[in-house]
Amino acid sequence: MATFLYKLGRLAFRRRHFVALIWVALLTLAGVGAASAPTAGNTSFSIPGTEAQKAFDLLEQRFPGMSADGATARVVFKAPQGEKMTDAANKRAVEKTVEELGSGSEVASVADPYTGHAVSRNGTIAYASVKYKVSGMELEDSSRDALKEAAQQARDAGLTVEVGGDALTATPETGSSEIIGIAIAAVVLVITFGSLLAAGLPLLTAIIGVGIGVASITALASALDLGSTTSTLATMIGLAVGIDYALFIVSRYRAELAEGREREEAAGRAVGTAGSAVVFAGLTVVIALVGLSVVNIPMLTKMGIAAAGTVAIAVLIALTMIPALLGYAGRKVKPAGEKSKLLGGGRTPKNPGRANLGTRWASFVVRRPVAVLLLGVLGLGAAAVPAASLELGLPDDGSQPVSTTQRRAYDLLSEGFGPGFNGPLMVVVDAKGSDDPKAAFTQVGEEIKGLKNVVTVTPATPNKAGDTATITVVPDSKPSSATTEELVHAIRDKGADIAAETDSQVLVTGSTAMNIDVSQKLNDALLPYLALVVGLAFLLLIVVFRSILVPLKAALGFLLSVLAALGAVVAVFQWGWLSGLMNVEETGPVMSMMPIFMVGVVFGLAMDYEVFLVTRMREAYVHGESPSQAVVTGFKHGARVVTAAAVIMIAVFSGFIGSSESMVKMIGFGLAIAVFFDAFIVRMAIVPAVLALLGKRAWWLPQWLDRALPNVDVEGEGLRTHADPEEEKELVRA
């Protein structure tokens, strides 16, 4: 692989005009496609094989005019202080608003609060339910504008009015912190390279790669039902890996220049060596993200594939456009150790013979491996303790910022009708095989009334055929609570007993039940997916490092960093530690997708650092250095670059903590803290300590396995020994 990439790097360096033209054309094509594509809304949840989805599909068949997937809105009214919603003036304002709401062409129905018993007991709060003929994604902007205008008219009449539901969706905002993250990345690159031009290359290529990826996602969003969160996550991951991959290749290019090689040869060798590691690291990220499809949740599958596509583009750009741009830059990109005149180049260093920080740190770890290992493992273990209390759920309007109208509508409904009113359960009774459907409907309603945590059970509403009915159940607890989840399971248990008695089927659906089923499915898939990812890491690293213990150490270190990161997420978003600093306005269950998504992404990123650090160590060991000295040599060449890469990733991911979307905020924090744990504790401390303790045993591989494994040559051994066949023979024998 190294030889092929070496030739590719040299070709891109020579044919830089052609390479640049191709990438600019792709960016233009993707941009035109995005500009001409229809706007996409939030993707909907679909969970094949779950009870909530079966009930939803049944409603589509038995209640064809119900628009089960249609958008909904709740316009919530609150009377001024000292007044009630039943007062004549307030009632006229509400009735006028209801009339305005029902005039839209996409509106299926509007329920008047006064005829639909939608006024609170104390008379201060009321709501009007609006049902649309189309889903929230398909809803026209004119319908949303009409909804806002109707609410504003009621406000002008003196009422407090807020709107909840999926018809009026808040657009996620990442805030200025995303820009700050990129700015920090730029500063780190300038410090690392000592050159503005060299620092600008990774930023430029990463932005182009993300631009192509996100524009492609936008162009396909409507056709493939991709939500706004998909492009945000692709941006987050694409920026981080795009900058890092380009950073590794530019850094290796400067090192090759420092050894006296010509620029084209240096570009070829940089792509052949660092580029080989980029391919492997990118492949692990892509496999982990695409592997999310095994969970069989379409939304998660689409997010993973979209992010994987952006990572693949980042790899291709790093391998081709970076050497092309290096060709354009010429002598303006200095060899390693030299700085541009603007940043102090040409000055005599104060301590020319002093070892760099990476060398000094590695030497310390090699002298004190047991102490460093124990401190690192105990520290990560302590951070992982909160993960034992992990509770999974999905965000609803109650997790929105209090500045949004959806959150304020949620709070008003909780105040007037109880916390469970925001997450009613829909019970679907399929009595097609029953001799007495009406009796079955009645029995189901009576059984549910006898359960704990039930506030209201509406009478059964049958369809025209009379063989299927819906019953609305309002819990006494908020939608995301464990008590509501227990009620859903209790209704399903009762339904199994009723089915045996009446030959009918009882199914529980609705957004709350759907969220519970999503959480359960993700929870069930977490351990198998984790085993798949760790197993894959182990097998791939055996091929790369030709060792058994090094991959085992890498996999265990990955598990430590993931568990510690999950513990930090639980502490902040579930327990509320530092919630003010992170602008977390509502604590609660951790988003269901968070653990499995974090496993997939952090796995790939962890392998980045493992490959770029340990390949340098193996390279030194193969060339005759002692195991301890090889660790120090690996840090001498790789620690600075890996540190810069980690800081850049942390900065980019942290930029998304400022998002108004709770899902994006949580993922941004989780990935940032996971990179910190993995890069600075696992790879920089635990890895060298373990390798120092293992000595030569770290690089042991059974001879039969050595013969069976393919030689992928990630370190670029073929390039190093190409000019010296005798040395190559010695290395093969070693």
Specify the structural class. Answer: alpha+beta
**Strand residue percentage:** 5-15%
- Secondary structure: number of strands: 11
What general outline do the C-alpha atoms trace?
A: elongated
Oligomer, anyone? single chain
Helicity, as a percent range: 55-70%
Number of helical runs? 23
What is the overall pLDDT average?
82
Largest beta-sheet characterization: 5 strands, antiparallel
Through-space gap between termini: 21 Å
Indicate the radius of gyration in whole angstroms.
30 Å
Residue stretches low in confidence (pLDDT < 50, at least 5 long) are: 723-734
Describe the protein.
This protein has 734 residues and is an alpha+beta fold. The protein is 62% helix and 7% strand. The chain has 23 helices and eleven strands. The protein has helices spanning 2-14, 16-36, 51-62, 88-101, 141-156, 177-193, 196-224, 228-258, 263-290, 298-329, 357-367, 369-384, 405-417, 437-449, 482-502, 511-545, 549-574, 593-622, 627-654, 662-694, 703-708, 717-720, 725-733; strands at residues 72-78, 107-111, 125-132, 160-164, 392-393, 425-430, 454-457, 461-462, 468-475, 505-509, 590-591. α1 crosses α9, α17 packs antiparallel against α20 (662-694) and α18 (593-622) runs parallel beside α20 (662-694). Mean pLDDT is 82; it is low at 723-734.
